[in-house]
Amino acid sequence: MQVSAERLKKVKSILVTLPKPESDKNPYTELAKKYNLKIDFRSFIHVEGVSARDFRKEKVALGDFSAVIFASRNAADHFFRICDEMRFEVPAEMKYFCLSETIALYLQKYIQYRKRKIFFGKQTASDLAEVLKKHTGEKFLYPCSDVAAEETQKFLAENGYNFTPAVLFRTVVSDLSDLAEVFYDIIAFFSPSSIQSLYKNFPDFQQNNTRIAAYGTTTHKAALEKGLILDIPAPVPEAPSMTMAIEQYIKQVNK
Question: Which tens digit of pLDDT belongs to each residue from 142-199?
């Protein structure tokens, strides 16, 4: 990753636009110790559940489905919440298809974990293709947010699966007014929504010497559309994680 000469400024502080990790054992803490950095966490967006009353307006009958596809732990939380609020007892034979094993294991919070009913992929809907092919007769419910991942819906639609999206939670811009006079050398973004939040809170934001790190192609695109200089794109082959990409950048500028 080649850094332009005028932006070769030492990094001392980083703002990560995610909630603070529950444990100190995380890659960011290690990065902070290794390079003597100040790393703060602040979620630029948060999730709010759709009420049972609003969900009824979607005219989605929970009893019509034989399987559920979960793309996130949020989706699982709000599916079981809405079932509880609507006093809908989830049938024991319900099948669950999860985009990753992490989400699948998380279901233990709500149901007795039986592998015969729970299937998972590596990270995307296409990873589930082989499993889904064996269950083409299912009627799938896809709990999602109002800014649902288009790739998953596109995959399901293109492959002819009988699925119904149900908006169970909304992505909401967080109030960041207390950051108005706070400046960081790097701000790390993980979704287009978090970049939208930056401009909703600070319409006149000037990048100046702040370096922008962004994870994922849709986040890269959102940053560039706002006219931001994307200093640290991730993932890249030599840096598959955000912390690795930031560390490679720091090695170049903190000499």
Answer: 999 887 566 788 888 888 999 999 999 998 999 999 999 999 999 999 999 999 999 9
Burial of 154 (0-12, 13-18, 19+ CB in 10 A): exposed
3-state secondary structure of 10: coil
Q: Is 1 helix (H, G, I), strand (E, B) or coil?
A: coil
Kindly state the tokens that stand for 96: 């669950």
pLDDT digit string, tens, across residues 1-52: 555 666 788 999 999 999 998 888 899 999 999 999 999 999 999 999 999 9
> Whole-prediction pTM value?
0.74
Amino acid at residue number 15: L
DSSP result, 207-228: -TT-EEEEESHHHHHHHHHTT-
Distance CA 108, CA 71 (A): 16
